[in-house]
C-alpha cells in the first residue's frame, strides 16, 4: 500500500488557490490558512483513495500491480502491446521508445514492455515493473523465464550467439493467446553504454575487516564455483591481493581465439599508473618468452624432477631439446659469464653421489657423445683444492673472522645498502664458499672488487653461485681474470663485496664462510692436457707418441704352426718405434711384425726380428720402420708354448 500525506501549514494570510483536474470537474479550494476540501473522501476506479483529515490529505495507491510510464513511440511501424522497447530519445518532455533487439547493442538496453498498441509519435503506456495482462503468451509455459529476442520479441531461451545481448525480461504467468500475462522483472545481464573511457561495473566493499573482499562468483548446476576477488587492506591472511579461484572439479583453461599472443606486464617501479613493461609473452605458436625464470622445487619422493623435457625427434635431423643462443656483448678481462651454472649445495650431505651431467643411452645404431666441442673451445677448466679458513674477514671493516669460520656463531650480512664484506688471505684464492642460515629475500645486487694495492681496488665480475645471497653457493673466478691482483691492507690479497640494493625485507645470515686456494688444471682448445696424476687401465705413453691399435685376437689353440692375424691399414705416413704386446694364458708366443700393401703370411717387410713374448705386458723397442700411407701393419704368430687365450697387440708411432 502506498500513502501520500500532505500536511497543511498555516500561513496567517487569507485568500485561496483553485485547482482543477485534467478531466475537468470541481476544483479544490486551498486557502492559505489551511486546506478546505469540499468533500469527505474520494475513491478512484483504479483503487486510489483520497481521505482528508483536519491537517492532512492521505492518498492511498491501493494494491497497484505495475510501475507504468507514459512515453512517445519512435518507431515507423508503431509498437504492439506486449513488445519489448528501449529508450531511444526524448521529445516534448516524454521519453521516446523503439523496439528492442538482442542483436544490436544500440537497441538492447531494455526499458519496458508496451501496455498498448500505438502508432509512431503517439503516447504509449509502458510497464517497467509488475504485471502486463491481456497479451498473447501461447508460445510460453507457466513459469518460463523470458529474455529479450529480436525486434521487440520476447524469447524463452537465453541468446545462443556469443555476442548477442543477454537481457532477462521476467516470467510467464498466465498462458493464453489473448488474455495471457507476464511479470516484468528487468534484470540486465548485459551492461551497455557508449563512452570513450573504461566502462566500469564496480563492486565496492569498504570494510577493513579481517575477512573482507569483493568478488564475482560463477556457480554451475552442481554448486561448484569459480571466482575473481580482491581482498581488503585489513585482510588477515592476504591483504590487497587479487585471486582467481577455481574450485578444482575441472581444468582451468585459457583460450585466445586468434593467432595472437598472451602478454604479461608488471610495474616494477610501483607507480600504479599503467607504466608497466612487458615481462612475459606466450606466442601463438606455443613459445614462451620471459625475462627470467626461477623454479623452486622441493622433492616429495624419489626420482622427482624440477624440470622434465620429453623431446621426440621423430626421425628429423638438427632437433634440439634445449637451444641456447648466448651473446656475450662487449665483455672484457675480469668478467666471468656462465651459460649454465650448476651450483651444488651439499652442506647437509653425509654421502651419496651428485652428478652435474649424466648421459645414458640405450643400444642402437647412433653414436652417442656426452660432449662435443668445436674449434676454439677449451673442453675442461678445473679449479682443484679444498675449502679452508681465510686469514681475515671483515663486515663493514669490523673483524668477524671468528663468526665466519665457526658454525653456530651466525651474524647478519649486508643489513643496509652499501654494506661490505671483505675476505683476505696471505695467498691467492679463487673461490669463496657462503653457507647461509637465512637467505636474502631478494638479490642484494652485489658488486665485487679485488685489491690492487693498499687502499686501491678494481672492480670485476666473478661467477656468483649464491644468486645475490639468496642460496648457499660458491663465488668463483680465475686468477688469470684479475692479473693485477696485489697485496692490500694487512699484507693480504683482498676481495670486497658490496650490497647495492636499496630495500631488502630479509637480510642474509651467514653460518660458515671459507675459501679455496685452487690449483688450475685444463684440457685446452689445442688438445693439450694439464693434469696432476693419471691412472690408466692400459699403457699410456708419456712422450706424446700414439698407438696404432691392432686389438684383441683370441687364440685358445695349441697348434704351433704359423698363424696369420689381420692387420691395420694406416692412412698417412708413420714411423713405428715400439711394439706393445699383452699375452694372456700359456707361457710365451713368438711373433713377427710386418708391413706391406696387402696382408699375407711371410710377405711384406719384416720389422726387426722375430721376438718371443711371455705372458704379461711387454714393450719391445724395434728397429725404426717408416710405413708409407696405404700400407697394412700386421703380426704373425710363428710359435706358441702352452695355450695362450688372448693376444692384444699395438704399435707405437
Structure description:
With 653 residues, the chain is an all-beta fold. Among the domains are: 3-60, no CATH class; 66-188, Head decoration protein D (Virus Head Decoration Protein, Chain: A); 384-522, Galactose-binding domain-like (Jelly Rolls, Sandwich), CATH 2.60.120; 550-652, Jelly Rolls. It has one helix and 43 strands. Strands 37, 38, 39, 40, 41, 42 and 43 form a seven-stranded antiparallel sheet that branches. The longest helix has 4 residues, at 401-404. The N and C termini lie far apart (118 Å).
Give the second-level CATH assignment, the architecture of the domain at 384-522: Sandwich
Helix run count: 1
Low-confidence parts: 1-47, 538-562
**Which whole number gives the mean pLDDT?**
82
Strand content: 35-45%
And the CATH topology of the domain at 384-522? Jelly Rolls
Biggest sheet overview: 7 strands, antiparallel
Radius of gyration: 48 Å
Q: Tell me the name of the CATH homologous superfamily of the domain at 384-522.
A: Galactose-binding domain-like
Portion of residues within helices: under 10%
Q: What would CATH call the class of the domain at 384-522?
A: Mainly Beta
| Secondary-structure content class | mainly beta
**Basic shape:** elongated
Amino acid at each position: 500500500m502506498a500513502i501520500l500525506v500532505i500536511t497543511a501549514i498555516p500561513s496567517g494570510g487569507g485568500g485561496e488557490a483553485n485547482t482543477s483536474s485534467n478531466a475537468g470537474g470541481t476544483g479544490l479550494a486551498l486557502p492559505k490558512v489551511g486546506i478546505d476540501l469540499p468533500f469527505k473522501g474520494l475513491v478512484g476506479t483504479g483503487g486510489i483513495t483520497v481521505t482528508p483529515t483536519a491537517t492532512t490529505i492521505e492518498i492511498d495507491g491501493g494494491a497497484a500491480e505495475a510501475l507504468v510510464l507514459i512515453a512517445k513511440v519512435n518507431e515507423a511501424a508503431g509498437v504492439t502491446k506486449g513488445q519489448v522497447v528501449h529508450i531511444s530519445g526524448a521529445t516534448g518532455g516524454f521519453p521516446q521508445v523503439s523496439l528492442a533487439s538482442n542483436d544490436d547493442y544500440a537497441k538492447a538496453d531494455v526499458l519496458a514492455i508496451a501496455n498498448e498498441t500505438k502508432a509512431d509519435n503517439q503516447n504509449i503506456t509502458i510497464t517497467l515493473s509488475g504485471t502486463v495482462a491481456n497479451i498473447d503468451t501461447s508460445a510460453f509455459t507457466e513459469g518460463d523465464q523470458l529474455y529479450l529476442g529480436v525486434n521487440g520479441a520476447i524469447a524463452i531461451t537465453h541468446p545462443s550467439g556469443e555476442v548477442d545481448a543477454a537481457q532477462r525480461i521476467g516470467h510467464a504467468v498466465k498462458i493464453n493467446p489473448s488474455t495471457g500475462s507476464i511479470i516484468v522483472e528487468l534484470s540486465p545481464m548485459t551492461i551497455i553504454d557508449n563512452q570513450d573511457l573504461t566502462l566500469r561495473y564496480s563492486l565496492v566493499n569498504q570494510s577493513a575487516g579481517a575477512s573482507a573482499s569483493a568478488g564475482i562468483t560463477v556457480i554451475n548446476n552442481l554448486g561448484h564455483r569459480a571466482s575473481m576477488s580482491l581482498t581488503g587492506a585489513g585482510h588477515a591472511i592476504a591483504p590487497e591481493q587479487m585471486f582467481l579461484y577455481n574450485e578444482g572439479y575441472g581444468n582451468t583453461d585459457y583460450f585466445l581465439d586468434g593467432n595472437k599472443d598472451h602478454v604479461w606486464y608488471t610495474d616494477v617501479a610501483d607507480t600504479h599508473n599503467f607504466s608497466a613493461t612487458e615481462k612475459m609473452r606466450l606466442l601463438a605458436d606455443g613459445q614462451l618468452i620471459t625475462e627470467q625464470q626461477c623454479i623452486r622445487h622441493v622433492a616429495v619422493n624419489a626420482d622427482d624432477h624440477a624440470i622434465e623435457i620429453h623431446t621426440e625427434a621423430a626421425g628429423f635431423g638438427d632437433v634440439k631439446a634445449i637451444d641456447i643462443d648466448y651473446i656475450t656483448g662487449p665483455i672484457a678481462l675480469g668478467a666471468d659469464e656462465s651459460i649454465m651454472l650448476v651450483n651444488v649445495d651439499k652442506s647437509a650431505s653425509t654421502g651419496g653421489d651428485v652428478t652435474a651431467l649424466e648421459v645414458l643411452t640405450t643400444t642402437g645404431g647412433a653414436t652417442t657423445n656426452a660432449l662435443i666441442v668445436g674449434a676454439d673451445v677449451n673442453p675442461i677448466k678445473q679449479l682443484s683444492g679444498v675449502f679452508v679458513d681465510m686469514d681475515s674477514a671483515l663486515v663493514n671493516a669490523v673483524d668477524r673472522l671468528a663468526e665466519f669460520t665457526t658454525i653456530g656463531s651466525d651474524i647478519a650480512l649486508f643489513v643496509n645498502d652499501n654494506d661490505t664484506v671483505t675476505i683476505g688471505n696471505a695467498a691467492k684464492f679463487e673461490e669463496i664458499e657462503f653457507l647461509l642460515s637465512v637467505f636474502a629475500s631478494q638479490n642484494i645486487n652485489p658488486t665485487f672488487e679485488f685489491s690492487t694495492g693498499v687502499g686501491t681496488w678494481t672492480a670485476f665480475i666473478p661467477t656468483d653461485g649464491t644468486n645475490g645471497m639468496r642460496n648457499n653457493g660458491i663465488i668463483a673466478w680465475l686468477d688469470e681474470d684479475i692479473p693485477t691482483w696485489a697485496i692490500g691492507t694487512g699484507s693480504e690479497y683482498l676481495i670486497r663485496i658490496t650490497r647495492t640494493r636499496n630495500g631488502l625485507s630479509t637480510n642474509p645470515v651467514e653460518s660458515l664462510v671459507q675459501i679455496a686456494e685452487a690449483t688450475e688444471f685444463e684440457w685446452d682448445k689445442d688438445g693439450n692436457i694439464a693434469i696432476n696424476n693419471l691412472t690408466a687401465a692400459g699403457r699410456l705413453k708419456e712422450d706424446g707418441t700414439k698407438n696404432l691399435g691392432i686389438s684383441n685376437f683370441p687364440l685358445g689353440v695349441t697348434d704351433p704352426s704359423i698363424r696369420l692375424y689381420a692387420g691395420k691399414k694406416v692412412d698417412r705416413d708413420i714411423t713405428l718405434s715400439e711394439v706393445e704386446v699383452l699375452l694372456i694364458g700359456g707361457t710365451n708366443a713368438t711373433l713377427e711384425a710386418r708391413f706391406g700393401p696387402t696382408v699375407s703370411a711371410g710377405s711384406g717387410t719384416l720389422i726387426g726380428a722375430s721376438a718371443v713374448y711371455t705372458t704379461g705386458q711387454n714393450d719391445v723397442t724395434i728397429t725404426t720402420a717408416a710405413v708409407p700411407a696405404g700400407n697394412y701393419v700386421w703380426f704373425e704368430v710363428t710359435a706358441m708354448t702352452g695355450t695362450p687365450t688372448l693376444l692384444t697387440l699395438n704399435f707405437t708411432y
